[in-house]
Design goal:
Two copies of one chain form a homodimer. In chain A, about 15% of the residues lie in helices and about 40% in strands. Chain A is mainly beta and about 270 residues long. Chain A is built from five helices and 13 strands. Chain A has a single domain, classed as Beta Barrel (Porin), CATH 2.40.160.210. The longest helix of chain A is centred in the first third of the chain and has 13 residues. In chain A, about 50% of the residues are buried. In chain A, helix 2 runs antiparallel to helix 3. A twelve-stranded antiparallel beta sheet of chain A has the order 1-2-4-5-6-3-10-13-12-11-9-8. Chains A and B meet through strand 3, strand 5, strand 6, strand 7 and helix 4 of A and strand 3, strand 5, strand 6, strand 7 and helix 4 of B.
Chain lengths: ~270, ~270
């Protein structure tokens, strides 16, 4: 059985005392450095692999402090607090002794309660009815099958943007892979910069922080398997060098797996 | 000149090496322990007061790891990374040596760029046309003037909730106080639990994590002064012990000051 490219990329090697060694993977390369979603998944994985972990991820925030250089990094995961059914983590990724990413994670043992998904998935065609995007300028994009319904990447950079930055798309790993917390974390960063839709202009930019709330527990992820996810995302504010977006990821049955928010910097 | 109650409560005393001592303030007491918005503002303040800080807050995530006991706490702020125009912080609050809150913060020196607020404020009556809420069961609520337009706290806990959890309200400090990053952070936690609207049932609950993206820079906060803020918030997913919401805060001129999201736990 061949290791899936995502599993090969997200893998970390324990080097003792809650520390792990990882490396960037050319299969998830971005314009410069790695796809942030893979870096996020690797940071999350440092806690997932930690022997002291209790429960599954519920809330994860990762801050991209510096561009990762291609190559190795160290991941340090530390338990800040363990409660009866929840645990709080602080995670840092370092290269050459300098911090390149920070993260905090809440894990929890979840129990069945009243549940309701207030944010309903939009009415969209099935994934089989939507064309796969062929715009794959960077390597990591080839690791996903993306089928845009609304809000495609601009075809011309003529500086005439749309009035809103809504994107809806079907997505899954390519080749398909059963979703887990690490891959759901990575897929939460799949949305291209909202400013591209608003301005149709290319300006230097990058994600500085991303938060993922895992509404799905392990049972719901198992039920989702390697099926399609429906992603929706929209920008909120763009001001003086930073803009944010908020998004949702559902499975094909319409169950909410994750909500996510991020802030990007931009240059002009 | 009398010190505003918010300033008295958020104050920290330096005890050396990036550490500060603070205390809970009875004026911001919640049902149990302090108002989380005040704890968040105090955690933020540890970085704001730090001599090594560069730039103003842009993105802040605080994780409530344990209920704070009434009394003193220590706040530790550490620079994880300093770049040319951004800085990344890790903050911890401790009581009796145990971590009660963790936080990460991005500060930045901001420059004027293309700007646009995609999320427009809803059309609502002016604050002077909206009745002030008189429902003030806990102390911290008296520190704010809140004028609900949509989505009030249920009057009867009869277990018949609304179909959605949208709330819109005007708010400001009581007495009025010029908004700053710390008070905007606190006000981001002013929204009552969305599950109260959906279920009209009281269940044990608490915020476990909150993120604030500061779209406002210092100039926009100065222009806002002690004016009214318009807050809007809505839940997304409620599932197996946790639910989230996302919200926005505008000033009375309709400029977006902050976007915020949080995750709460609930019991049943």
């Amino acid at each position: 059985m061949t290791l899936h490219v995502f599993d090969a990329a997200v893998a970390l090697e324990p080097i003792g005392d809650g520390e792990f060694r990882g490396r960037t993977n050319p299969a998830y390369a971005n314009f410069i450095g790695p796809f942030g979603g893979m870096t996020a998944a690797q940071a999350l994985n440092a806690a997932l692999l930690h022997p002291d972990r209790l429960g599954d991820p519920v809330a994860f925030t990762v801050n991209f402090a510096a561009a990762l250089a291609d190559g190795e990094f160290e991941a340090q995961a530390r338990v800040a607090r363990t409660n009866r059914s929840t645990q709080h983590w602080i995670i840092e990724l370092k290269q050459a002794g300098a911090t390149v990413a920070t993260a905090t994670l809440l894990t929890a043992a979840r129990r069945e309660t009243w549940s309701s998904h207030e944010v309903a998935p939009p009415a969209v065609p099935r994934p089989q009815e939507v064309a796969r995007t062929t715009r794959r300028a960077v390597e990591w994009v080839k690791r996903y099958d993306m089928r845009f319904i609304e809000g495609r990447i601009p075809h011309e950079w003529q500086g005439q943007g749309d009035e809103d930055s809504l994107t809806q798309l079907w997505l899954r790993d390519e080749p398909p892979r059963p979703v887990d917390f690490a891959s759901l974390c990575a897929m939460s960063d799949i949305f291209f910069p909202r400013i591209w839709l608003r301005r149709a202009t290319q300006t230097p930019l990058g994600t500085v922080t991303m938060t993922v709330y895992f509404h799905a527990d392990a049972d719901l992820l198992r039920a989702t398997g390697d099926g399609w996810l429906l992603g929706q995302v929209r920008g909120q504010g763009f001001r003086n060098g930073f803009f944010d977006h908020f998004g949702q990821l559902w499975n094909e049955s319409g169950e909410l797996l994750a909500t996510t928010h991020q802030l990007m910097y931009f240059k002009e």
